[in-house]
Amino acid sequence: MIYEFDGYKPVVHESAFVHPQAAVTGNVIIGRDVYIAPGAAIRGDWGKIVINDGCNVQENCTIHMFPGVTVVLEESAHIGHGAIIHGAHIGRNCLVGMNSVIMDRVELGTESIVGAQSFLKEGMTIPERKLVIGNPAKIVKDVSDEMIRWKTKGTELYQQLPAQLHETLRECEPLREEPEDRPSQSLNYKTWGKAKNSES
Fold it and tell me: CA distances (Å), 35 to each of 43, 74, 130, 145, in order?
């Protein structure tokens, strides 16, 4: 659902995919190959939201701000299921873990990773390539090259997803039983623990 608000219409690049069950309102700019998942609420009613090329905003995320503030997701930012971004700036190629809360005036540095269910309080500045976890969140270590390779590969899957969805997503009636010849889905990505162990 795309909504004009107070004269502002969202701008969505033709290569991006906004799921019909997401809500994008007002002064929102969505770049190339961006994926916006079902249940995401992106509210550019009081300020501006810029979601740059290659980002993904997953199911049930909320992006909003206080009046007059601009929220920016730099290129390839990866916002996990259920996360809240409120008035923050998310750096290039960052990962925000599931159900995390990123509060106003947070500056999340390039290629930083926020662990699931973390709370970044108002005004925190996280330098580039830091791993941040906890409630309240603390920097626990530097992000390694190995972690960035893993994160980047996962984000690349989401960057390919909009084109796949434009091509194949359609409403349908469900089958009543599973066909015997139903193909298996490809295993083209491993969770962090499995990916780390396979490279060691």
Answer: 16, 14, 25, 25
Dump pLDDT digits (tens) for 125-149.
Answer: 999 999 999 999 999 999 999 999 9
Tell me the C-alpha distance between 83 and 134, whole Å: 14
Query: Pairing state of beta strands 62-64 and 41-51?
Result: parallel
d(CA 60, CA 84): 9
Q: Are 88 and 66 in contact (CB under 8 A)?
A: no
Vertex 44 angle, CA 18 and 56, to 5° = 35
C-alpha to C-alpha distances, 198 to 37, 117, 190, nearest whole angstrom = 30, 27, 9
Give the model confidence (pLDDT) of 56-75 as tens digits: 999 999 999 999 999 999 99
Closest CA to 139 of 93, 103, 108: 108
178-199: pLDDT as tens digits: 999 988 887 776 676 665 655 5
This prediction's pTM: 0.92
Choose among 48, 39, 36: nearest CA to 6.
48
- Helix, coil or strand: residue 21: coil
